[in-house]
Amino acid sequence: MYRDLELLYWWPNLKRDVAKYVESCLVCQQVKAEHQRPGGTLQPLPIPEWKWEHIAMDFVVGLPKTTKGHDSIWVVIDRLTKSAHFLPVRTTYSMDQLADLYVQEIIRLHGIPVSIVSDRDPMFTSRFWKSLHDTLGTKLSFSTAFHPQTDGQSERTIQILEDMLRACVLDFQPSWSRYLPLVEFPC
């Protein structure tokens, strides 16, 4: 419609006016081809039955560097009890280093989880990470892109952690990772 009008007429905001008209025209809306698939119904995450069988994880990034070079926190949360581990990491860690840390700090203490919910961080979607969990028999689930509420539990815990860390960083700037275990508790 815009192209046809543009050939014969011109006025300021012609394109915007045509778009408004088409949006308000019932016939235009009825004949317009649908280019998006309809969304599926929302499915809540099932409530876990045993602690540390179903976990969520995410990274808090952009923190000031510590004396040990840590600039991020890997947050791992038990979805049943809401207890969490806050692991100081560097954004430069390789997948091998993260896998080793995961085995030492999570699997060693709690066993292999049945499922993990995370966002679509490249670390969690990498071939190595998927292969590791295929081998371990852990199901990986990812939150919807640009919709962090899918995994609201870990997002809320991260929000609480960041508030606490800001206070901690103000007092203990270069050594915040040393005090990280003090904020590990059910949020």
Automatic annotation (TrEMBL):
Pfam families: Integrase_H2C2
GO molecular-function terms, A-Z: nucleic acid binding
Highest taxon listed in the record's lineage: Bacteria
One GO term of the biological process aspect: DNA integration
Ranges for domain Integrase catalytic: 42-187
InterPro entries membership: Integrase_cat-core (IPR001584), Integrase_H2C2 (IPR041588), RNaseH-like_sf (IPR012337), RNaseH_sf (IPR036397)
PROSITE patterns referenced in this protein's UniProt entry, alphabetically: INTEGRASE (PS50994)
Protein name: Transposase
Species this protein is from: Ligilactobacillus murinus
Taxonomic lineage of the native organism: Bacteria, Bacillati, Bacillota, Bacilli, Lactobacillales
